[in-house]
Design goal:
Blueprint: H1 2-10, E1 13-15, H2 26-35, H3 45-50, H4 57-67, H5 74-90, E2 93-100, H6 102-106, H7 112-130, E3 133-141, H8 146-156, E4 163-169, H9 181-189, E5 193-198, H10 205-216, E6 220-223, H11 231-240, E7 243-246, H12 248-255, H13 260-268, E8 272-275, H14 280-283, H15 287-298, H16 302-315, H17 320-336
Parallel strand pairs: 1-2, 2-3, 3-4, 4-5, 5-6, 6-7, 7-8
Helix pairs in contact: 1-15, 5-7, 8-9, 16-17
Length: 343
Amino acid sequence: MDDVRQFIEGVPKGELHLHIEGTLEPELKFELASRNGIELPYRSVAEMRAAYRFHDLPSFLAVYYEGMGVLVHEQDFFDLGMAYFRKAHAQRVVYAEVFFDPQAHASRGISFDVVIEGLHRAQLEAERSMGLRTQLIMCFLRDLSAESAMETLERSLPYRDRIVGVGLDSDEKGNPPVKFREVFARARSEGYRLTMHCDVHQEDATGHIRQCLYEIGVERIDHGVDCLADEALAEEIARRGMGLTVCPISNSYVTGGLMEKEILEMLDRGIRVTINSDDPAYFSGYVLENLLALQGAAGLTEEQVRQLERNAFTIAWLPSEDRDGYLRALDDYVGAGADGGPS
């Protein structure tokens, strides 16, 4: 166990399912609230953390969107980004694709450019000072209209060089992927890469995954564990070499478990499953904690950890030369052993 833990701590990691707004830790939330003259409904960090009690996706989203209210100025988004990048770097994340939700900020009167400029500055600083490379994925809120999503897509086009792809998140009930068919077709035509959330055990979960594959044509699925309930879907995902960005600790808030058996089954079937942290400030676990929790529950071997990280770099939206560089660094670490791996 100690050897595997050390291996997990040191292995170069890729993270592909991380909501930057979901990294807003209570300490930073209080700091930004003070700076922006905002009164929070909590007296302390401990009281705020105690309020993070979720039993399903809607109960989580209510707290999640409330927490964004302290993000007002470009500097706030810079500070938010840097806080995550420092944490990720400390956990040996070497590459990350980061979701952001511009509609959630626009509804509060925060312009697109304020959000993107702050995050972009943080990206540049993280790469300069830590060597951490990141890319942004713009998510549409599925409980808003397709028209709102299309307007957001058009607003993003002047920043096309700063956004690698688009995704779809928020409440899935009554909001299937096909609702956004035209939006995603337009995004593809503009050169964006495509992914969508299909969270665990949601309404018509396998139907949503099927829509993603056959009607939207996404390249990845975020979560997507319910594909195992449909043999044909699981086989097709494996055949296509599609990636699933799974988040064990956040799964436990919705299903009561990490879904470790399902993750091991996906590994055994050759599905490119990856391990990520989702909204770590709310679920008390960044990518390292997710891997360690999964190891504790499933007894992951070093080879399985290596395969999880190989999957992450393989499905990352990177030029082949850059992807190969990360894969070589991973192989070098594995070949050298945890004690002698790159630092």
